[in-house]
Amino acid sequence: MSSFSLQDKTILITGASSGIGRSCSVECSNNGAAALILIARNEEELQKTVMMLAPATKVETIIADITHCENLEELIAEKVDIVGKISGFIHCAGIEKTLPLKKHTPQLYNDIFAVNVISGFEIAKILSLKKYKNEKSSFVFISSVAGMVGEIGKTAYSASKGAVVSGARSLAMELSRSNIRVNSVSPAMVNTPILEKMFDNIGEEASQEILKKHPLGIGEPEDVANACVFLLSDAAKWVTGSNLVIDGGYSAQ
Ligand SMILES: NC(=O)c1ccc[n+]([C@@H]2O[C@H](COP(=O)([O-])OP(=O)(O)OC[C@H]3O[C@@H](n4cnc5c(N)ncnc54)[C@H](OP(=O)(O)O)[C@@H]3O)[C@@H](O)[C@H]2O)c1
């Protein structure tokens, strides 16, 4: 078996109803994952992801708002009983808002941090418990180049993505004793609904400026998903506490 294979692994993915999370689900399945537990709010869109998976992959879904779900541990426990203990987690659920500072409010920071940061680390807390985790596990948090490079209108979003990288690094230290590796992935612009919404919001001229800053053009969801598959696989068994930048050269300038 290739060390890049996800054979025998059960992987939980948030944000699986769209964009990068959907692509992560498909690529985990294509790379031999035994089972997937997929989480999102939109049942219809999540079902579309399920239809894209290889028939051999067992799949369970959880329809939930991860920011308002008091029984999330119970729901995850039920699914673990069915498909087995977890050996991988990708936190893809995220929201993005591009707004001038004068439009930033405490509520905006709260909303963005609730999905992008707190929910991911709370799920990691559940998945680090012995009763749910396999002997070895790997957690991947989707951050963004916005966590490293300044962008106008992104104060709250960038702050949340910086928090993802630094939180994941500390989690890597804390969970190494439990045989859990923790890493983040920082993409630049990727062709997904979140990007379409942002381009609608900032207008044609600003969108073109952003596109010009990507030497290899904007990315496709599978460019990010492939990096996640690597980090989940045993090929990355010595990789923890790192932030893998997948940005078509955006931050190299
Ligand atoms: N696309 C880019 O250019 C880009 C670049 C850098 C980083 N990222 C990051 O990559 C991640 C995925 O982005 P994407 O482009 O794939 O976005 P997307 O297509 O808009 O997908 C976002 C996903 O998050 C889920 N989600 C949002 N709020 C949720 C909540 N409260 N509870 C449960 N699920 C929730 C959505 O599912 P439901 O609506 O069904 O709940 C959806 O599946 C995000 O963290 C984003 O910040 C994206």
Automatic annotation (TrEMBL):
<protein>
    <submittedName>
        <fullName>Short-chain dehydrogenase</fullName>
    </submittedName>
</protein>
<dbReference type="GO" id="GO:0006633">
    <property type="term" value="P:fatty acid biosynthetic process"/>
</dbReference>
<dbReference type="InterPro" id="IPR036291">
    <property type="entry name" value="NAD(P)-bd_dom_sf"/>
</dbReference>
<dbReference type="GO" id="GO:0016616">
    <property type="term" value="F:oxidoreductase activity, acting on the CH-OH group of donors, NAD or NADP as acceptor"/>
</dbReference>
<feature type="domain" description="Ketoreductase">
    <location>
        <begin position="9"/>
        <end position="183"/>
    </location>
</feature>
<dbReference type="InterPro" id="IPR002347">
    <property type="entry name" value="SDR_fam"/>
</dbReference>
<keyword id="KW-0560">Oxidoreductase</keyword>
<dbReference type="InterPro" id="IPR057326">
    <property type="entry name" value="KR_dom"/>
</dbReference>
<dbReference type="GO" id="GO:0048038">
    <property type="term" value="F:quinone binding"/>
</dbReference>
<dbReference type="Pfam" id="PF13561">
    <property type="entry name" value="adh_short_C2"/>
</dbReference>
<comment type="similarity">
    <text>Belongs to the short-chain dehydrogenases/reductases (SDR) family.</text>
</comment>
